[in-house]
Design brief:
Helix content is 44%, strand content 12%. By secondary structure, it is an alpha/beta fold.
């Protein structure tokens, strides 16, 4: 007797056959080609197409399949598979020593293939009684309710079906209710969400009783890989064998399915926030361990560090090199055990079933020794992920009254109430999907592969539905999904059913239940406790955030309260490469290092070209080395060289602007200071302060894209940083300037007391600015008054929602969902956003 191949062994042999062929080398996805080829192989045997295949004119795809199938047969000698086992049984039935059954009852055979028909005929010939059981049909009575219902769209159709099912269940709790969706695979998530909301809108019951069963069951499961427990296992294996996107590592850090997931839950969440500021978009296990070591003193997660270090050591020693699949399966199981999989808490019933199914998949992988000699752990994990993605799994549930089924699953079943949805003229009968590796002409008898055979099967199923329940609703959407203008009608297969006007009762949504139970309490928005100052402190309260506190409070009081008092922040997404902030930091470091060395305009004028090149290259190298510590992947050798050339070119361009100025010396570079204003002590870092020969000082801040000078004006300035430096740190300065360091457009954007301070700067107020101040001294006094007022307001606890310019100020604010300004203004923000 030949050995029966498992489905995964078949797939491996198909992949080998494709890889060995000339046509296979041109394919982008050999795995998908192997799946379609295996499907074609089964269809060809089920419908006896193999003999006709050689006599038929083949296209390029069919010729490739013929070549692959010959290679597959050659490789699979002394083995058989699911497609050929029917032929093997036919041969065995001819042997007198093989016992035959007296009677065979076939139930639910809506599709009878030629292979099945030949087997049944042979059984009859050898004396077996073959009975084809017919699906039961309910007797026609006057009580039967059959109606065709038109719904607005797909969502409305699912919503009505859920409300109808709940109403029938409340009327007769023991009723058998069926919901049939021919496209159940596409609708599954939406159906689950809508039926859950209708059947149990108060989610508090589910929180109080986590094992509470919903009254419906969906027959179609989900890919095993989509379950969090299996996804966590595969992510750990991916991390141990190569690079993983940080977004996936973030999921892993917060997973309850590894050791310490419950005990260190909060610490790991904070760790995730911190790592997002340092990590790259793709990380390895080595890099993750380095990042964890750096955060070891700030956030303690000893269990996490221990298990990842153990996984790292084990993967290097036990999972390296080429090994047999069975050996790798044992190694993978041990690796998962080392990291505490599947976690410390007790698994609920669905999770336990998922775990057992995952173990079955791993056991199936271990059986590949007969078709794969040796492979790497990385390839093994890739194959395991593919296997888990192809396994559709549904945990067993208790017997519930509502069954949600696909078209074929509903065949042969009867109900008290039945709703069949999605029966539009576009969707039912469904479009044929012929296999691309078989000639279309040979697939005319194959349901789902030819239009005629698909139509006949759809008629059979529709006829069954008409006799499957006393209460039957056949529905279709009027509008196609994602297209409001596409008008749909009912399927011609349900044309004989009269139209109805079913209006199931409306059940409140969860938000409606909350609204009905509301108890309103009105609070003053500005009633926030003022900052407390320690008795032994000086006059100021220290606030994290530096001068940005003033900027954000000027933009919106509520934003500054949420950001600096509540310590709210939006988790960052690690960049794929250097972002604008990192690039700005690099040029800051370069120019700071250059002016630390030069110090004066005379030194800049005197330096020769070779020495300047050495100075700029050294400054660029130092800046890149600093950044490489936190972004090693983004600052690889190739990208570092590109960035070095950019920095040198940009620094040269800026120094040409400094050469246009009169004599000056740089008295402060990247100088950290504490600025006190309005009861606040703020940490500031001045990019640069210049002093001219006559003692006048200029405050300079580097920007890759400078704002306008008007941004520093107004009672609530959009850019208060430079005025703040002047008022609280360099009160004798006579100019503040943004130094725009931008390729092809490097320049000063300044407010100055005198005309001769900076290139292009004119004495305040100049001809273009429309301001109420008429002199530099008035401007400085106004800055002082306004900035003290903003700082005092923040210290006093003012937290009103008052954006400077709505909706511009709120456009990129991460606290819109907290202050709910969009709700307060009645949706005007969204309309304005779309119009812009």
């Amino acid at each position: 007797m030949p050995v029966l191949l498992s489905p995964i062994q078949e797939r491996v042999l198909w992949e080998d056959a494709i890889n060995c062929s000339d046509s296979g080398r041109e394919l982008l996805d050999v795995g998908e080609a192997a799946r379609l080829a295996s499907e074609a192989w089964q269809l060809a045997h089920a419908w006896h197409l193999i003999p006709r295949l050689d006599r038929h004119l083949l296209n390029e795809d069919a010729r490739a399949f013929r070549q692959w199938s010959r290679q597959y047969e050659e490789t699979a000698r002394r083995r058989t598979d699911k497609a050929r086992v029917g032929g093997l049984v036919l041969e065995l039935l001819a042997r007198p020593e093989i016992a035959k059954p007296r009677r065979l009852v076939c139930y639910g055979f809506d599709i009878v293939t030629r292979q099945h028909a030949a087997l049944l005929t042979r059984l009859k010939e050898v004396g077996c009684e073959v009975v084809i059981a017919q699906a039961p049909r309910l007797p026609v009575t006057t009580r039967r309710k059959l109606q065709r219902l038109e719904c607005d769209d797909v969502r409305d159709e699912m919503q009505r079906a859920a409300q109808w099912a709940r109403a029938n269940l409340e009327t007769v709790p023991s009723a058998r209710i069926g919901i049939v969706a021919p496209d159940l695979a596409a609708r599954r998530s939406a159906i689950f969400r809508i039926f859950s909301a209708v059947m149990e809108p108060d989610v508090r019951q589910g929180l109080a009783q986590p094992d509470r069963e919903l009254p419906f069951n969906i027959s179609l499961g989900e890919p095993l890989v989509s379950y969090p427990l299996v996804n966590a296992a595969l992510l750990l294996l991916d991390l141990s064998t190569g690079k993983v996107a940080f977004e996936q590592v973030s999921v892993l850090l917060r997973s309850p399915f590894i050791s310490g997931g419950e005990v260190e839950m909060i610490q790991r969440a904070w760790l995730d926030i911190r790592l997002r500021k340092r990590a790259e978009e793709m990380v390895t296990l080595d890099r993750l361990l380095v990042l964890l070591e750096r955060e070891r003193n700030a956030i303690r997660c000893p269990d996490l560090l221990r298990i990842l270090a153990a996984l790292h050591g084990f993967s290097k020693t036990a999972l390296g090199g080429l090994q047999k699949p069975s050996a790798l399966a044992r190694g993978i199981a041990e690796a998962l055990r080392l990291i505490g999989f599947p976690g410390e808490r007790r698994l609920d019933s669905p999770e336990y079933q998922v775990l057992k199914k995952w173990q079955e998949v791993l056991a199936d992988f271990a059986t590949l020794d007969s078709v794969i000699s040796r492979t790497t752990c990385k390839h093994a994990v890739t194959r395991l992920r593919r296997m888990a993605a192809e396994v559709i799994f549904q945990p067993e549930t208790a017997d519930v009254p509502i069954q949600i089924l696909g078209a074929l699953e509903s065949a042969g079943m009867t109900f008290d109430h039945l709703w069949v949805m999605g029966l539009s003229n576009e969707a039912w009968p469904p479009q044929a999907r012929p296999n691309p590796f078989l000639p279309v002409e040979l697939q005319r008898e194959v349901p789902w592969s030819s239009a005629q055979a698909t139509l006949e099967l759809a008629r059979t199923l529709t006829d069954h539905w008409l006799g499957a329940a006393d209460d039957l609703v056949l529905s279709h959407p009027r509008h196609g999904q994602g297209s409001e203008t596409q008008e749909l009608s009912f399927s011609p297969l349900i044309e004989s059913i009269s139209a109805g006007a079913l209006a199931p009762p409306l059940y409140p949504a969860y938000r409606d239940l909350i609204h009905e139970a509301r108890k309103l309490e009105r609070l003053d928005e500005s009633d926030v406790p003022a900052l407390r100052i320690a008795p032994d402190a000086r006059v100021s309260a220290e606030v994290h955030g530096g001068t940005a506190v003033i900027k954000d409070h000027a933009a919106c009081q509520f934003r500054s309260f949420a950001l600096y008092r509540l310590r709210g922040e939006r988790p960052e997404r690690p960049p794929f490469a250097l972002g604008p902030a990192e690039r700005g930091t690099l040029i800051h470091h370069v120019l700071a290092e250059v002016w630390r060395k030069l110090k004066t305009k005379d030194a800049l004028d005197a330096i020769n070209e070779p020495d300047l090149e050495v100075l700029l290259r050294g400054a660029a190298n130092d800046a890149i080395d600093r950044l490489r510590r936190d972004h090693p992947a983004a600052m690889s050798r190739h990208f570092s060289e590109i960035e070095r050339r950019r920095l040198i070119r940009l620094a040269r361009e800026w120094l040409s602007q400094d050469r246009k100025r009169a004599d000056f010396s740089v008295v402060a570079v990247e100088e950290k200071r504490t600025i006190e204003i309005g009861g606040l002590a703020l940490t500031a870092r001045l990019d640069r302060v210049d002093e001219l020969a006559d003692g006048r000082r200029v405050i300079i801040d580097y920007k890759s894209r400078a704002p306008t000078a008007a941004a520093m004006l107004d009672e609530r300035p959009e850019e208060p940083q430079l005025p703040l430096y002047l008022v609280a740190g360099e009160s004798e300065a006579v100019a503040v300037a943004f130094a725009q360091v931008k390729p092809g457009d490097s320049r000063f954007v300044a407010l100055a007391r005198d005309d001769d301070l900076l290139p292009g700067a004119v004495a305040f107020p100049g001809p273009r600015l429309k301001v109420k101040h008429t002199s530099w001294n008035e401007l400085v006094d106004g800055w002082r008054t306004n900035l003290v007022s903003i700082a005092t307001s923040f210290s006093a606890g003012s937290a009103r929602m008052n954006p400077r310019k709505y909706p511009h100020t709120c456009r990129n604010c991460e606290f819109r969902s907290l202050c709910r300004i969009d709700e307060r203004v009645g949706g005007a923000f969204g309309q304005d956003e779309e119009s812009e």
